[in-house]
């Protein structure tokens, strides 16, 4: 059943137009369609996607809400930094970043905030 179905992330946005500009201008992703007033759908690789919907609850989660897997983390970070994306620095038990990158046995990862305060991740498996 569900194990064979495509999965999508759902992200909140206080300002849907500001979020659309961020994903277009900073990440280079265009919406694929609108679900209804105040929401927009994005499609990514291999049937994956994410929905952004307008709500006052945006930016309140303190955890990673969505992430992309890449085969070249440094290249992706360089391109995103060139578009103005700022990567987070963390230093707490189990997670320490250097120049925005955390390294572990499984691979490496980096995090940034979108325009709505959602924590987004990019990772590369070892």
UniProtKB/TrEMBL annotation:
<dbReference type="Pfam" id="PF00903">
    <property type="entry name" value="Glyoxalase"/>
</dbReference>
<keyword id="KW-0456">Lyase</keyword>
<dbReference type="InterPro" id="IPR004360">
    <property type="entry name" value="Glyas_Fos-R_dOase_dom"/>
</dbReference>
<dbReference type="GO" id="GO:0016829">
    <property type="term" value="F:lyase activity"/>
</dbReference>
<dbReference type="InterPro" id="IPR037523">
    <property type="entry name" value="VOC_core"/>
</dbReference>
<dbReference type="InterPro" id="IPR029068">
    <property type="entry name" value="Glyas_Bleomycin-R_OHBP_Dase"/>
</dbReference>
<feature type="domain" description="VOC">
    <location>
        <begin position="5"/>
        <end position="125"/>
    </location>
</feature>
<protein>
    <submittedName>
        <fullName>Enzyme related to lactoylglutathione lyase</fullName>
    </submittedName>
</protein>
């Amino acid at each position: 059943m569900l194990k064979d179905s495509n999965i999508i992330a759902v992200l909140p946005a206080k300002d849907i137009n500001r979020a659309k500009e961020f994903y277009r201008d900073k990440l280079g992703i265009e919406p694929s369609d609108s679900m209804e007033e105040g929401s927009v759908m994005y499609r990514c690789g291999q049937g994956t996607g994410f929905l952004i919907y307008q709500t006052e609850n945006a930016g309140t989660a303190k955890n990673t809400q969505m992430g992309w897997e890449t085969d070249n983390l440094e290249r992706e970070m360089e391109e995103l930094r060139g578009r103005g994306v700022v990567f987070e620095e963390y230093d707490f038990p189990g997670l320490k970043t250097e120049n925005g990158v955390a390294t572990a046995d499984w691979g490496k990862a980096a995090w940034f905030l979108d325009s709505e305060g959602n924590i987004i991740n990019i990772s590369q498996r070892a």
